[in-house]
C-alpha cells in the first residue's frame, strides 16, 4: 500500500511529538525522584538471575556468544534486578537513584493496540532507607511520578493546542482487594476499567499477591517487587500499577509498574510461595540473600505508552517502530491508522 505525502507528513509530525514527550517527561522524572541517567544493557548473561522473569512464563530471546565458549546471553525483558546491582556499584545514598532508557524484546506478548514485541521504558531505581519500607513511602514516590506526568501533559497540550488536558489533579490510591470487594462479579481487567473511568488516574496496590478466595489480580515475579508484606490488617503489597483512563481506547491504560523491592526475608518468603526456591542459588539472589545489595524502590514507565496516551493515539504502532502482521497493518491503514 503506497504511502501518500499527507500520510508521510503525519508520521513525521508524530515522530517529532514523540521526541517532545520523551524529552519533557524524562526531565521531570529525574527532577521529581532525584535520578541520574545511566546507560542500559541490551543483553545480560543467562543463568545469573539478572534478567527479569516478568510473570515467569515469558520466554526471553537468547543466543550463544562465540568468544565466550558459547555461553548464552539473553535480551533483557526489563532491568528490575540489573539496576539494583548497579546501585550497589555506585554506592549512592538513600534518596538518590538512576534511570535508564531501556529497550527490551518480549516476543510472547500478544500484539495489539497496546502491545508490541518491542518494549521501551524509563527503568528507574533509587536507594531507600530500610525504615522506609512502608506504604506511605511508596505513595509518596507514586505522587511525585504523577506530578511529572501532569507537568508533561501541560507541556504537550501547550505545544499542541488541538490536545486538551484530561488528567485529574491527583491520583487515587486503591488496593486490588478494594476492587475485588466492590466488583466481585467482574474480572480483574474489568475492575480496572471501572476504577480508571471513575477516578481518571489510579495507583492500584498489591499486584501479585493472593486475594481473598485465592484469586490473583495479576501476576508478578517473586524476586523483585514486594507483594506479600502486610500494609494493614487486611491488605498486602508494597507495589502496584499506575493506571489512567484512556478515552480513545475507552479502557484502563497502564503507564507504570513499580514497587518497593524485596529484602532477604521477603525474597525467601515469595520464592517459597511460588515454589521457586531453586532461584536462591543464582548470582543475583545470592547477593540479595547475603545482604550485599541496597534496599531500593523502582519500576518501569512505558515510553511508548505515555506517548500514545498523551498524543491520543489509537495504536502503539503510531508512536513506536516495531514488527506487525501484514493483516494488522492493512486493517489499521483501512481505518486511517498509519503504523510507523
Supply the key terms.
340 residues; alpha+beta; BirA Bifunctional Protein, domain 2; eight-stranded mixed β-sheet; three-stranded antiparallel β-sheet; 9 helices; 34% helix; globular
Q: Quick one: how many beta strands?
A: 11
Largest sheet descriptor: 8 strands, mixed
Please state the oligomeric state of the protein chains shown: single chain
User: Based on CA inertia axes, which overall geometry fits?
Assistant: globular
The tally of helices reads 9
**CATH class category name:** Alpha Beta
- The arrangement of helices and strands along the chain is HEEEEHEEHEHHEEEHHEHH
CATH architecture: 2-Layer Sandwich
Strand order of the largest sheet: 1-5-6-11-10-9-8-7
Superfamily (CATH H level) name: Bira Bifunctional Protein, Domain 2
What is the average of the pLDDT values?
92
The CATH topology is BirA Bifunctional Protein, domain 2
Radius of gyration: 20 Å
Distance between the termini: 14 Å
Any overview of this molecule?
- This protein has 340 residues and is α+β, with helices and mostly antiparallel strands.
- It has helices at 5-33, 82-90, 135-159, 176-182, 188-199, 264-273, 283-289, 303-310, 326-334; strands spanning 35-38, 43-45, 62-65, 71-75, 97-105, 118-127, 172-175, 201-205, 239-246, 251-260, 296-302.
- The strands form 2 sheets. It has an 8-stranded mixed beta sheet with strand order 1-5-6-11-10-9-8-7, with helices on both faces. Strands 2-4-3 form a 3-stranded antiparallel beta sheet, with no helix packed on it.
- A hairpin with a 5-residue loop joins strand 3 and strand 4.
- Helix 1 (5-33) runs antiparallel to helix 3 (135-159) and helix 1 (5-33) packs across helix 8.
- The two termini are 14 Å apart.
- 41% of the residues are buried.
- The mean pLDDT is 92.
Amino acid at each position: 500500500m503506497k504511502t501518500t505525502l499527507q500520510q508521510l507528513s503525519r508520521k513525521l509530525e508524530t515522530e517529532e511529538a514523540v521526541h517532545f514527550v520523551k524529552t519533557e517527561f524524562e526531565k521531570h522524572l529525574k527532577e521529581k525522584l532525584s535520578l541520574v541517567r545511566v546507560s542500559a544493557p541490551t543483553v545480560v548473561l543467562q543463568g545469573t538471575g539478572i534478567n527479569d522473569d516478568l510473570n515467569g512464563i515469558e520466554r526471553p530471546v537468547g543466543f550463544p556468544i562465540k568468544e565466550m565458549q558459547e555461553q548464552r546471553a539473553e535480551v533483557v525483558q526489563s532491568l528490575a534486578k540489573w539496576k539494583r546491582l548497579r546501585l550497589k556499584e555506585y554506592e549512592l545514598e538513600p534518596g538518590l537513584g538512576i534511570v535508564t532508557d531501556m529497550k527490551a524484546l518480549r516476543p510472547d506478548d500478544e500484539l495489539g493496540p497496546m502491545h508490541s514485541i518491542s518494549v521501551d521504558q524509563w527503568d528507574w531505581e533509587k536507594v531507600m532507607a530500610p525504615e522506609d519500607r512502608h506504604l506511605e513511602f511508596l505513595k509518596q514516590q507514586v505522587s511525585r511520578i504523577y506530578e511529572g506526568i501532569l507537568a508533561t501533559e501541560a507541556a504537550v497540550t501547550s505545544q499542541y493546542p488541538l490536545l486538551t488536558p484530561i488528567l485529574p489533579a491527583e491520583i487515587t490510591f486503591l488496593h486490588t482487594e478494594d476492587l475485588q470487594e466492590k466488583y466481585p462479579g467482574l474480572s480483574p481487567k474489568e475492575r480496572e476499567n471501572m476504577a480508571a473511568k471513575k477516578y481518571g488516574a489510579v495507583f492500584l496496590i498489591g499486584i501479585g499477591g493472593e486475594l481473598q478466595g485465592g484469586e490473583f489480580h495479576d501476576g508478578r515475579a517473586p524476586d523483585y517487587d514486594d507483594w506479600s508484606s502486610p500494609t494493614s490488617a487486611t491488605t498486602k503489597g508494597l507495589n502496584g500499577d499506575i493506571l489512567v483512563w484512556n478515552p480513545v481506547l475507552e479502557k484502563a491504560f497502564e503507564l507504570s509498574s513499580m514497587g518497593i523491592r524485596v529484602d532477604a526475608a521477603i525474597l525467601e518468603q515469595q520464592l517459597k510461595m511460588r515454589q521457586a526456591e531453586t532461584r536462591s542459588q543464582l548470582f543475583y539472589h545470592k547477593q540479595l540473600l547475603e545482604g550485599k545489595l541496597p534496599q531500593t524502590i523502582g519500576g518501569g514507565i512505558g515510553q511508548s505508552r505515555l506517548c500514545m496516551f498523551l498524543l491520543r493515539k489509537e495504536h502503539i504502532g503510531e508512536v513506536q517502530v516495531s514488527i506487525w502482521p501484514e493483516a494488522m497493518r492493512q486493517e489499521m491503514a483501512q481505518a486511517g491508522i498509519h503504523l510507523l
